[in-house]
Amino acid sequence: MYLKSLEIHGFKSFADKTLFEFHTGVTGIVGPNGCGKSNVVDAIRWVLGETSAKALRGAEMADVIFNGTDKRKPVGMAEVILTLADCEQGLGVDYNEVAMCRRVFRDGRSEYRINGTICRLKDFQELLAGTGIGRSAYSVMEQGKIDMLISAKPEDRRSVFEEAAGITKFKGQKKEALRKLEYTEANLLRVADIIAEVKRQMGTLHRQAQKAKRYQVVHKDLRILDLHLGHKHFTEYTAEKTESENQIISLMTELNDLHQRVHAKEQEVTETREIYHQVESTINGLRQQSQEFRSKIQGAESKIEFNRERVEELEGRIRRNEEDATNNRDMVDRQQRELAAADEQFSSIRNAIESRQYALEEHQITHNAIIPSAETGDGAPHPARNLPPAGRRGRHGRCQSAEPDQPDGHRPSAARSPGA
Questions:
Q1: Is residue 101 within 8 Å of 17, Cβ to Cβ?
Q2: Phi-psi region of 57 (alpha: psi -120 to 50; beta: other; left: phi over 0)
Q3: Which of 58, 228, 242, 405 lies in disulfide reach of 63, CB 3.0 to 4.6 Å?
Q4: Domain boundaries in the chain?
Q5: What does the pLDDT profile of the chain (420 residues) look like in tens digits?
Q6: What is the 3 state secondary structure string of the chain?
Q7: Rounded distance between C-alpha atoms, residue 346 and residue 342, angstroms
Q8: Whole-angstrom Cα distance, residue 20 to residue 40?
Q9: CA geometry: angle at 295 spanning 292 and 301, to 5°?
């Protein structure tokens, strides 16, 4: 059995998938300090089942995942696949090659696979037990490991020798067998306690068994009696069923009659409902007309009230006009009486004036006849020729007044002269 290949992806400094193939002979990995040579050994130890982050030079298991650089993003998973060849005799399996795969994610989940099948870390340890391959076996000797073995205690060196001799696997199997024997002995003790408890309960169980047998006999008799009683009840129920069926038939007949009556009543109700709807429509129409008439009545009442107020106002005006007419009629009568008196006075005054004018004319004529020559010689105007127009008698023998005529009813009263 030999190491065939190692595939690393996302583990520490191996961001890209890297494949190491180991051919026959000795294979050496050389390089400057810090190029990742120790990371290859850490990857082998990690895939073989190393669970200590401190042994892998880290604080926690997630530190083995590539954290990225200034130019590359970090990855979310670290994966290492170790392939062993010629494994039929060394591992005792039916396969020539065995690929052991281990993965870890940033959320802490881990995954183990053998030839693509998911398994446990314990399966890795059982597969590699006794082969000298493992996280603490002598197949991986890092720097300082030989000095540690030389200076170690005899008990620590003994584990290395036992691993080299191939008895570690059997010692593990022995330890597992002893653990199972202890577990079996504990189970036997619990079984002995259960047997003792059951023995103590056997007397009680025997009495309960006798009671159970008597119960079975009584239960059998009770079942027979129940059957007879059931048959009797069945006969009675059958008779009641027949009677009930007859009643049901009569009730169905009555029900059909009732259905027919209900159908007729429903038709009557439908017709009544239609009539009710018609009456309701008529009532609504009448209500609407009543509302319209009520509105018209209110308008007419408003007009009547307005006309009543107008009539009262006009009647007041008529009464005032009648009072004014009565007053004016009295005034007209009084003024007519005054006018008649004034006319009479005017006639008397006019007659007096005419008589005075006539006397004045005669006096002028007499005067002119007495001294005509004296006035003519002196160049003075003739008195008769220089009379004013008012002093001349008219064509009809009445004196014409110099004042303009006034309208009827508004003639001024003639002033009475002192000598009239």
A1: no
A2: left
A3: 58
A4: 2-166
A5: 778 889 999 988 888 898 988 887 777 888 888 788 888 888 888 888 888 878 788 888 888 888 888 888 989 899 999 998 888 777 778 888 889 999 999 888 889 999 888 998 888 877 877 676 766 666 666 666 666 667 767 777 777 666 666 677 677 778 888 999 999 999 999 998 898 888 888 888 888 899 999 999 999 999 999 999 999 999 999 999 999 999 999 999 999 999 999 999 999 999 999 999 999 999 999 989 888 888 889 888 888 999 888 899 998 889 888 888 888 888 888 888 888 888 888 889 989 998 888 888 888 888 888 875 444 444 444 444 444 444 444 443 443 443 444 444 444 443 343 333
A6: CEEEEEEEECECCECCCEEEECCCCCCCCCCCCCCCHHHHHHHHHHHCCCCCCCCCCCCCHHHHECCCCCCCCCCCEEEEEEEEECHHHHCCCCCCEEEEEEEEECCCCEEEEECCEEECHHHHHHHHCCCCCCCCCCCCCCCCHHHHHHCCCHHHHHHHHHHHHCCHHHHHHHHHHHHHHHHHHHHHHHHHHHHHHHHHHHHHHHHHHHHHHHHHHHHHHHHHHHHHHHHHHHHHHHHHHHHHHHHHHHHHHHHHHHHHHHHHHHHHHHHHHHHHHHHHHHHHHHHHHHHHHHHHHHHHHHHHHHHHHHHHHHHHHHHHHHHHHHHHHHHHHHHHHHHHHHHHHHHHHHHHHHHHHHHHHHHHHHHHHHCHHHHHHCCCCCCCCCCCHHHCECCCCCECCCCCCCCCCCCCCCCCCCCC
A7: 6
A8: 9
A9: 140
Residue for token digits 């008196």? 341
Residue that the structure tokens 């961001």 belong to: 15
